[in-house]
Amino acid sequence: MKKRYFILISGIVQGVGFRPFIYNLAQKNNIFGYINNSSEGVNIDCEGEKSNLDNFINDIIINPPPLSKIENIEVNEKELLNYERFTINKSEVKANKITNISPDMATCDECLSDIRDKNNRRYRYPFTNCTNCGPRFSIIKEIPYDRDKTTMNKFKMCENCNDEYNNPSNRRFHAQPNACETCGPSVYITDNKKNNISCDDPFYYAQTKLKEGYIFAIKGLGGFHLCCDAENESAVKLLRKRKNRPYKPFALMAKNIETAKEFCIINENEKNILCGIRKPIVLLEKQNNISLSESIAPNQNTLGIMLPYTPLHELLFTSNEIKNSIKILVMTSANYYSLPLEYENDIVFSHLNKIADYFLMHNRDIYMPIDDSVVKSVNNNTLMIRRARGYVPETFSYKNIHNIFAAGSDMKNTFAIAKENLMILSAHNGDLKNLETLNHYINNIEHFKKIFDFVPKYAVCDMHPSYISTNYAEKLNVPLMHVQHHHAHIAGCMAENSIDEKVIGVSFDGTGYGTDGNLWGSEFMICDYLGFERAAHLEYVPLPGGEGAIHKPYRTAISYIHKYISDSQNTIINLFGEKSANITKIIDAKINCPESCSIGRFFDAVSAILGVCTESTYEGQASIELENILYKVNSKTNDCYNYSLNNENNIIIINPKEIIFGILCDINNKIDKSIISMKFHNTICNFTNYICIKLREKYNINKVALSGGVFQNSYLLKNIMNELKKSKFDIYINKNVPSNDGGISLGQLAIAERRISSNLV
Ligand code: ZN
Ligand code: ZN
Ligand code: FE
């Protein structure tokens, strides 16, 4: 019997080859009608024999295109219209609904074979893509996703491309960025004075110059990279000098997985991420005795490696004419001091002409700049460190959430919006600390409002009174909620794991404004979305110079020794020289010395006491290097330092006096730094487990949620998880959002939603 169904599908169904897929399926099942994109997803109007229609719908659910993600499918029976064929119709725009937009995806295998095939018309064409891969989010100006609403609108397809675009059986059917050598974007090279360099093959030219040690700015998918040959020691050093970046690790791009394996130890999970459809930077353990310069990631036992994720990058490693072509490149995000990622052709020269010798440019505009994502694998969990390309703007489900804007944190900022049944996180926006980064933040928010048709009814921000993000949210003219930083960390972890009950939250972090006005960051809290009770933390110590002490770990070290060691003056001078006497005076006079219980600062202090890192050139350097020396131990130890726990107003206060004392004794006894670091880490794991047990006894809660930037320390995370597991806790950690401040906005949304639905706003 003949029937007519009207089907509404929402989810990631635009720009991922959904319409050609449906078209082909309709042909196969003898179904007539049409499909079009709408602001809600796709609509399918279809008529056919009932059994054919059933098969049709079944196939949609079971076998959708690889990049699509169906969130909801709604089928309504309608009166027969007697369609005579199946067509793909023009998009229809409807207001107030979210269309899921696909992230930018790495080049698929079929496109790779196209550009490697001498007889293919896309042989070595750097902008090859299809419905299964290529740019999306970064080129979309407006929705619905059609070519004229992307930065591809200035390129008119040639006849061949047009045929592919209109042929429902072609892989490039309605691939909006479809292009070729004849009609599409192209690559060119300039010197740093903006002079075009004429050459037959820009990739050959680039490889030759990179081999000679020159530095390139390369325009890619979401922005520019600064690039040099990673095996060329002097080129890497020159880049460090010109970028004024002495220690912060550089990301690398390896020719292929085999090359990556020459430099790093790669397990199965890591290999799958490296070679997958997103291709983020993966932090991997270094092999011993490799040919790379130490200055790529000084004092680290890991390297951040990604594989080529666009044809343009692929071509950087393959030239017909060079036998000994480049194996591995430094590929670090190009930004000018602390400004946002460079992405515009006309601005990049004035910003980078003193850093790059050459510019590998192209004329496909980037509308929404987006950084590379960074992940790592711990115990076979893939953990997000920086969520951006390949992941944003994928959504998180949350039933019936209000229209909320979450401003995020000022460090490693992401903001987030909530609407209908979804939460959407922005990409990593970097640190908000100047007018340029604020403008970048505001532009991104405006873009999100447009492409997700979002109007905020509520806003939520951090409690920190001088955060730029807080000030922005305060001006929005909608009801505003302030959320404590570490409560947001834990709530984000809970939301990601769909937990909705009281947990023991452990937030180990660099900083965060507390309800008492002090700087927090070693928080054990009993909390749910509505609120929290502070249950334990490290004892406060003064932070000389306030949050500026982040860059001067030796100052924090002096503060710890001064507080906990009697007659400390000699010890301090022995460790840090005469200049340190002034710091103790500042502490005693209480000049700009806010109280802090941040465990991140405690790590800094120990790092400085050990002489591992006394001054930090990038965020977290002292703690990161303290973790990294631990991997150098010859024989593992389970030893811990002693510590004491005091009870003050029903809060457990961790007193680190004996830890500091023990470390100083070990230094005196010439114990190896790596052993001291390991013992220190073990101590943190030990008291974390012990305190969680105490809290379980008191509150009868068995769920522990771990969140905060310090959990990016793999040794700490692994060992705390192991201890808690032995104690039979249910453990929850961040995976799809970063445990650092990049995850704050998600937690803010979850807390805000609960306050709104409990009529507390
Ligand atoms: Zn493809
Ligand atoms: Zn073409
Ligand atoms: Fe934080």
Short synopsis of the structure:
The protein is 32% helix and 21% strand. It is α/β, with parallel strands linked by helices.
Itemize the secondary structure elements and their pairings.
Elements: E1 2-12, H1 18-28, E2 32-38, E3 41-49, H2 50-62, E4 69-78, E5 86-88, H3 109-116, H4 159-166, E6 187-191, E7 196-197, H5 202-211, E8 216-219, E9 224-229, H6 233-243, E10 251-254, H7 257-263, E11 264-265, H8 268-275, E12 281-286, E13 302-306, H9 311-316, E14 328-333, H10 345-352, E15 358-362, E16 374-378, E17 381-386, E18 395-397, E19 404-406, E20 416-419, E21 422-425, H11 435-451, E22 458-462, H12 468-474, E23 480-483, H13 485-496, E24 503-508, E25 522-527, E26 532-538, E27 541-542, H14 553-564, H15 569-576, H16 580-589, E28 595-596, H17 599-609, H18 621-630, E29 644-648, E30 651-655, H19 657-668, H20 673-699, E31 703-707, H21 714-726, E32 730-733, H22 744-757
Parallel strand pairs: 2-5, 8-15, 10-13, 12-16, 19-22, 22-23, 24-31, 26-30, 31-32
Antiparallel strand pairs: 1-3, 1-4, 2-3, 6-7, 6-15, 8-9, 9-14, 10-14, 11-12, 12-13, 16-17, 18-21, 19-20, 20-21, 24-25, 25-26, 27-28, 29-30
Helix pairs in contact: 13-22, 14-15, 14-16, 14-17, 14-19, 17-18, 18-20, 19-20, 20-21
Bound molecules: zinc ion (2 copies) and fe (iii) ion.
Description of the molecule:
With 761 residues, the protein is an alpha/beta fold. The protein contains 22 helices and 32 strands. The strands form five sheets. Strands 6, 7, 8, 9, 10, 11, 12, 13, 14, 15, 16 and 17 form a twelve-stranded mixed beta sheet that branches. The longest helix is centred in the last third of the chain and has 27 residues, at 673-699. The mean pLDDT is 94. It binds zinc ion (ZN) (2 copies) and fe (iii) ion. Fe (iii) ion is lined by residues 485, 489, 509, 512, 708-709, 741.
